[in-house]
Amino acid sequence: MLGPPVTVGPSMTTIGFIGSGHIGSQLARKAIESGYDVVLSNSRGPETLTALIAELGPRARAATAVEAAAAADIAVVTIPFKAYLEVPVEPLAGKVVIDTNNYYFERDGRFAAIDEGAQTSSGLLQAHLASSRVVKAFNGIQAADITADAHPAGDPARRGLPIAGDDPEAKATVAALLDQFGFDAVDAGSLADSWRFQRDMPAYGAKATAEGMREKLAAAVR
What is the four-CA torsion angle of 158, 79, 49, 93, rounded to 10 degrees? Predict the structure, then answer.
């Protein structure tokens, strides 16, 4: 369940990105549009983000992954899943961490715990970031749709996006962020339940209202 209503904004002003690819850069655009500062990092070094920072403007800066994690009020991990153990731990302690990752064995190699259904990719990230509060979100939407398919609350075209996490307050924080970005958060349960919107599941990549997304989550079969 979602926790109590959360106001994201004045007290949470910086979103730090561990990964700045297709999903990360689009989320950074929405964050700036919504009034946040962003600190972006990638595996190749801050100097490779010059063009993106120039496009995003004065509310954006490039940094190392450790620096982005330290600066973040809310962090976004958006990297190939196989690299999840490289996510810095200490600077993310106590923070809400949005996990956009998906497990693609063709790219990431085989993880027996996931293949056997004993773990989820987000559950493994939470185990790595034991003192953080991981919420899975934005993993099943096309990158371009993050900016192109956002709609204000009450719009019949507004999409529902699933989220999952073990901390109700953290989920409420992420749900409020989704609302700011133009989407309805649909609570899919705990991180152990997040398989319901991973690849090959009905909810993955689906364009649906919040009610339609709930139906797709319910239709998932492991």
Answer: 90
Contact between 91 and 112 under an 8 Å Cβ cutoff? The reply is no
Query: Is residue 7 in some structural domain?
Result: no
CA–CA dist 12, 73 (Å, integer):
5
The CATH number that applies at residue 67 is 3.40.50.720
Q: How far is CA 67 from CA 15, 41, 54, 70, 215, in A?
A: 12, 8, 19, 5, 40
pTM over 0.85: yes
Structure tokens at 199: 């690849």
Q: Is residue 1 part of a domain?
A: no
Going residue by residue through the chain, which has 222 residues, state the pLDDT in tens, using 9 for 90 and above. 665 545 555 466 999 999 999 999 999 999 999 999 999 999 999 999 999 999 999 999 999 999 999 999 999 999 999 999 999 999 999 999 999 999 999 999 999 999 999 999 999 999 999 999 999 999 999 999 999 999 999 999 999 999 999 999 999 999 999 999 999 999 999 999 999 999 999 999 999 999 999 999 999 998
Residue 107 lies in a domain: yes
Q: What is the domain extent for residue 101?
A: 14-218
Neighbouring C-beta atoms of residue 17, cutoff 10 Å: 32
Number of structural domains in the chain: 1
Let me know if residue 56 belongs to a domain. yes
